[in-house]
TrEMBL record:
<keyword id="KW-0456">Lyase</keyword>
<dbReference type="GO" id="GO:0008534">
    <property type="term" value="F:oxidized purine nucleobase lesion DNA N-glycosylase activity"/>
</dbReference>
<comment type="similarity">
    <text>Belongs to the FPG family.</text>
</comment>
<dbReference type="InterPro" id="IPR012319">
    <property type="entry name" value="FPG_cat"/>
</dbReference>
<feature type="domain" description="Formamidopyrimidine-DNA glycosylase catalytic">
    <location>
        <begin position="2"/>
        <end position="87"/>
    </location>
</feature>
<keyword id="KW-0234">DNA repair</keyword>
<dbReference type="GO" id="GO:0006284">
    <property type="term" value="P:base-excision repair"/>
</dbReference>
<dbReference type="GO" id="GO:0008270">
    <property type="term" value="F:zinc ion binding"/>
</dbReference>
<dbReference type="GO" id="GO:0003684">
    <property type="term" value="F:damaged DNA binding"/>
</dbReference>
<keyword id="KW-0227">DNA damage</keyword>
<dbReference type="GO" id="GO:0003906">
    <property type="term" value="F:DNA-(apurinic or apyrimidinic site) endonuclease activity"/>
</dbReference>
<dbReference type="GO" id="GO:0016829">
    <property type="term" value="F:lyase activity"/>
</dbReference>
<keyword id="KW-0238">DNA-binding</keyword>
<dbReference type="Pfam" id="PF06831">
    <property type="entry name" value="H2TH"/>
</dbReference>
<dbReference type="InterPro" id="IPR010979">
    <property type="entry name" value="Ribosomal_uS13-like_H2TH"/>
</dbReference>
<keyword id="KW-0326">Glycosidase</keyword>
<dbReference type="InterPro" id="IPR015886">
    <property type="entry name" value="H2TH_FPG"/>
</dbReference>
Length: 243
């Protein structure tokens, strides 16, 4: 599943279509394609893992889910969920969720929850974590209403950086460690963006998919953790379990 930084890259890559009028729209998603035709795209926005195509009175929300992809000025053999043709160029989305949000997009999203937004509010994240004291931190970090844009890679890397065991309970983690984790969720997301643009993201992973702890030279544990049952990679020696 693409994480927040990857959706920001998508936003940058499609700027050629900002301010352009859609000539035709088609696909196999359950939206009214005619409504998009002859409409001008005002701007593109992102909120975490959501890619937003903004028009005057509505917005098309795209979520790439686990295996979604897109093509700019080219096509796949697979039928797209949404295809938009312009006077010069086209934009195609595959294996994704496509929905229309009516009215003002600001009524749907709180931008302060997005770890890569200029409006990101770490104090609000801390307050929201305090409301989930009995959650495992591996679940809390993936909560998009607290850390919008954070996915499983960022979760594993941040917990490793902060030396926190993924099965730690939120209420048992010292306040200063939570502050560190909150800060790292944003910091690492921007590092992820930088490395991904350079096509070198994987070589910077210290925990995700790794087998040995580079600090302790001990085997890393691979385990499906929390209610979400997402893969965690962690060291039981240097990542403290707070329970």
């Amino acid at each position: 599943m693409p994480e927040g930084p990857s959706i920001l890259i998508l936003k940058e890559e499609v700027q050629q279509f900002a301010g352009k009028k859609i000539i035709t729209a088609s696909g196999n998603s359950a939206i009214d394609f005619e409504r998009l035709e002859d409409k001008k795209i005002l701007e593109f926005k992102t909120w975490g893992k959501h890619f937003l195509i903004c028009f005057k009175d509505f917005t098309v929300k795209i979520h790439l889910l686990m295996f979604g992809t897109y093509r700019i000025n080219e096509r796949k053999e697979l039928k797209p969920k949404l295809s938009m043709l312009f006077s010069s160029g086209e934009l195609n989305f595959y294996t994704c969720s496509v929905k229309i949000l009516e009215g003002d997009i600001n009524d749907y999203y709180n931008w302060s929850e997005d770890v890569m937004s200029e409006l990101w509010d770490p104090k609000k994240a801390k307050a929201n974590l305090d409301k989930t004291p009995n959650e495992m931190i591996c679940d809390a970090v993936l909560d998009q209403n607290i850390f919008s844009g954070v996915g499983n890679i960022i979760k594993n890397e941040v917990l490793y950086r902060c030396r926190i065991h993924p099965e730690s309970l939120v209420a048992k983690i010292p306040s200063e460690k939570l502050d560190e984790l909150i800060s790292e969720c944003s910091i690492y997301s921007f590092e992820f963006l930088y490395w991904k643009k350079k096509n070198e993201l994987k070589k910077h992973w210290l925990a995700h998919t790794k087998k040995v702890c580079h600090r302790c030279d001990l085997p890393l544990i691979k385990k499906s953790t929390g209610k979400k049952k997402r893969r965690s990679f962690f060291c039981t020696n240097c990542q403290k379990l707070h329970i």
